[in-house]
Specification:
Strand order of the largest sheet of chain A: 1-2
Oligomer: heterodimer
Number of strands of chain A: 2
Shape of chain A: globular
Largest sheet of chain B: 2 strands, antiparallel
Order of helices and strands of chain A: HHHEEHHHHHHHHHH
CATH architecture of the largest domain in chain B: 2-Layer Sandwich
Radius of gyration of chain A: 21 Å
Number of domains of chain B: 2
Structural class of chain A: mainly alpha
CATH class of the largest domain in chain B: Alpha Beta
Strand content of chain B: 5-15%
Helix content of chain A: 55-70%
Radius of gyration of chain B: 29 Å
Helix content of chain B: 25-40%
Shape of chain B: elongated
Order of helices and strands of chain B: HHHEHEEHEHH
Strand content of chain A: under 5%
Number of strands of chain B: 4
Distance between the termini of chain B: 40 Å
Largest interface: A-B, 14 and 17 residues
Number of helices of chain A: 13
Chain lengths: ~350, ~210
C-alpha cells in the first residue's frame, strides 16, 4: 500500500507550518463563531422561528455583535475561586481543541504566489504537522481537553460548577473508551493511524468508503463523538435545568467564549475525523475539497439537528449506555473484524 | 353539556384516559429484549424526521410562526378592548356623548370623571371628560352601558407612553373631525347585534 504522497509535494518549511497554524487558528475561530450563528438559525427553523434577523441581512452580522459583547464584557473572577486555575482552564479547552486540529487535514494545500513579498513561494501544507499517528494524536488531544471543564468546575467554588466537573469527568472517561475501541476496527482494516492513509485507502469512490465495511463502528463513533463534544443528547455537564450552566456557571466574557470556541472547534474536529475515516475523505477527483466540506457540513448539521430533536439523557443512563451497551458492542465489533481479516 | 362532571368531587371515579405505557420488563432477558426492540424500532429517526419536516414547512411552505412585531401586526378581534374611542355622529359631526353619566356611574375602578353643563340651547354638553388609564381595567362596562354608542373600545393597544395622561382627555379619544369618514362602528359590548332587526317585535297594542 502506498503510504503517503508527501514525496511528490514541495518541502514543508517551518514557515509554511507556521502560516498553516495561524490560518487554522483564524479560520476555525471564525467558523466556530459562524457555527453558533448556524446553530441558532437551524434550531430556529426547526422550531418554525426565524432566529437572529436584525443585525445585518438575515442576521449574518450577529456574529460580530456577539464577538464585541464577549470581548468587552467584564471578566469576573469569583472571590473564593482558585484564581490561577480558574483563569487558565478556558485556555486549556481552547488550546487542546486547536492543537487537535493541527494534525487534521483542514484545507487543501497551496503555494503562496511569488509576487507576494517575503512569503512568496512558500508551500503551505494541508496538515500543519503530518504525524504518522494522526488519529491517535487527535483523540489524545481531545481527551486532554477534559482538563478544561474539570479544572474550571473544581476551581470556581460553586456547587453547580463542581457537579458539572464531576459529570464531565465521568462522561469523558467513559466515552474515550468507546471512541478508541470503535475507531480501532477501521484502523485495523487500513493498517495505519495516518489520515492520509485513510484517505488513500478509500479513494475508489463511494463503494470503497469504510462506512460500508464498518457501519457499527461508524454509529458507535458518532455516539461517542457527540458525547466528547458535549452535544445533546449527552450535554449533561451544562444542563441549564439541572446544574445552571455546569462547569461554566461562574464564567463570563471572553473566558466563557473560549469554552464556547473550544466546543465548536471540537465539533469541527469530530466532523472531519468522521468524514475522513468513514466517509471517504477528500480525494475524489478534482472536487475533493468540495466533497469534504459537504461531508463535514453534514456532520455539523447532524449535531444541530439532533439537538433540536432529541431530549437529554440522565447521567446514570449515560453511564449505562456507555459501559453496558456501547463498549461490549465495540469490543465485539473489533473481535469480529479481526476474525474476518484473519480468515 | 351538563354540570355533572363539575359536581362530581370524587376524583377517583372520573373518566381518565390512561396512556399505554407498555409492560415493565420482569426478568433480565425481558429487559434485554426491550433494549434491542427500542434500538431497532427507529423512534429516534422518527424524532429527527419530525423536526426536519417542521424545518421544511417553515422555510418552504410559509408556515413560519414568527411575527416581526413592530413591523407586522396580527389582526385583532373587533371585540378587542383597548384604549377608548369617543365617536361622532356621522351626519352632523357632533360628538355622540349626551352627558348622561352612566359610564361614570358604572365604572368599577372609578377611573371615568366627567362634568357636564347646559349650553345656550339648553342642551347638555360635556365640559370635562377624562379616563384615568392608570386605573382603567378595560372591563368594557362603559361601552356596554352607553346608550348612544358614544364611548367604545378602540384598537389602540400600544399604550406605552411617557405619562399616563397622554390619551386620557376627551379630545384625544374623540374621532378627529377631518377623519369622520374613516370612523369605524364598534362591534363589541353594547353594539347593536347583527340580527337586531329580527329581534324587533311590533309594539303590542294590548296594553
Amino acid at each position: 500500500m502506498e503510504t503517503t504522497l508527501v514525496e511528490n509535494l514541495p518541502q514543508v518549511t517551518w514557515v509554511g507550518s507556521l502560516i498553516k497554524a495561524v490560518l487554522i487558528l483564524a479560520v476555525i475561530s471564525a467558523i466556530a463563531g459562524f457555527g453558533t450563528f448556524i446553530e441558532r438559525k437551524v434550531l430556529a427553523f426547526m422550531q418554525r422561528r426565524l432566529g437572529p434577523m436584525h443585525v445585518g441581512p438575515y442576521g449574518l452580522l450577529q456574529l460580530i455583535a456577539d464577538g464585541i459583547k464577549l470581548f468587552t464584557k467584564e471578566d469576573i473572577v469569583p472571590q473564593n475561586a482558585n484564581k490561577l486555575i480558574f483563569m487558565v482552564a478556558p485556555a486549556i479547552t481552547a488550546a487542546t481543541a486547536f492543537v487537535a486540529l493541527s494534525a487534521v487535514p483542514v484545507f487543501p494545500d497551496f503555494t503562496i504566489p511569488e509576487f507576494i513579498p517575503l512569503l512568496g513561494g512558500i508551500f503551505v501544507p494541508s496538515i500543519a504537522s503530518d504525524l504518522n499517528i494522526g488519529i491517535l494524536f487527535v483523540l489524545g488531544m481531545m481527551a486532554a481537553g477534559l482538563y478544561g471543564p474539570l479544572l474550571a468546575g473544581m476551581s470556581q467554588a460553586n456547587k453547580w460548577g463542581i457537579i458539572g466537573a464531576a459529570r464531565t469527568a465521568i462522561q469523558f472517561l467513559s466515552y474515550e473508551v468507546v471512541t478508541g475501541l470503535s475507531i480501532l476496527a477501521p484502523i485495523m482494516l487500513v493498517g495505519s493511524l495516518s489520515f492520509v492513509d485513510f484517505n488513500n485507502a478509500q479513494s475508489g469512490g463511494i463503494g470503497s468508503w469504510l462506512i460500508w465495511q464498518q457501519p457499527v463502528a461508524f454509529v458507535l463513533f458518532l455516539i461517542a463523538g457527540f458525547a466528547e463534544t458535549n452535544r445533546t443528547p449527552f450535554d449533561l455537564l451544562e444542563h441549564e435545568a439541572e446544574v445552571v450552566s455546569g462547569y461554566a456557571t461562574e464564567y463570563s466574557g471572553m473566558r466563557w467564549g473560549m469554552f464556547f470556541i473550544g466546543e465548536y472547534a471540537n465539533m469541527i474536529t469530530i466532523s472531519i475525523i468522521a468524514a475522513i475515516v468513514f466517509l471517504g475523505g477528500y480525494s475524489e477527483g478534482g472536487l475533493g475539497w468540495l466533497t469534504i466540506i459537504l461531508k463535514v457540513g453534514f456532520f455539523f448539521f447532524l449535531m444541530l439537528w439532533v439537538r433540536a430533536a432529541w431530549p437529554h439523557v440522565r447521567p446514570d443512563q449515560l453511564m449505562w449506555l456507555c459501559w453496558k451497551v456501547l463498549m461490549p458492542i465495540a469490543v465485539i465489533n473489533v473481535v469480529i473484524t479481526g476474525i474476518v481479516m484473519m480468515v | 353539556m351538563g354540570l355533572e362532571q363539575f359536581k362530581n368531587r370524587n376524583v377517583g371515579t372520573q373518566n381518565y384516559k390512561m396512556l399505554d405505557l407498555g409492560e415493565t420488563p420482569k426478568s433480565g432477558w425481558c429487559q434485554f429484549k426491550q433494549v434491542v426492540k427500542r434500538t431497532f424500532k427507529g423512534e429516534l429517526i422518527v424524532g429527527l424526521w419530525v423536526t426536519f419536516r417542521e424545518m421544511i414547512n417553515a422555510l418552504f411552505r410559509g408556515q413560519m410562526h414568527t411575527v416581526k412585531y413592530p413591523f407586522e401586526k396580527l389582526p385583532i378581534s373587533p371585540r378587542y378592548r383597548a384604549i377608548h374611542d369617543m365617536l361622532r355622529l356621522l351626519e352632523s359631526g357632533h360628538y355622540r356623548c349626551i352627558g348622561c353619566g352612566l359610564c361614570e356611574k358604572i365604572c368599577i375602578s372609578n377611573c371615568i370623571t366627567m362634568d357636564t353643563r347646559y349650553d345656550e340651547n339648553q342642551r347638555k354638553e360635556v365640559s370635562e371628560y377624562t379616563i384615568n388609564f392608570g386605573r382603567c381595567i378595560f372591563c368594557g362596562y362603559c361601552a356596554e352601558v352607553c346608550p348612544e354608542l358614544a364611548i367604545v373600545h378602540g384598537p389602540r393597544y400600544e399604550n406605552a407612553s411617557e405619562q399616563r395622561a397622554s390619551f386620557s382627555l376627551f379630545e384625544d379619544m374623540l374621532t378627529p373631525i377631518d377623519k369622520l369618514n374613516l370612523q369605524q362602528e364598534y362591534d363589541g359590548f353594547g353594539a347593536v347585534s347583527p340580527n337586531a332587526d329580527d329581534n324587533i317585535k311590533p309594539t303590542p297594542l294590548a296594553y
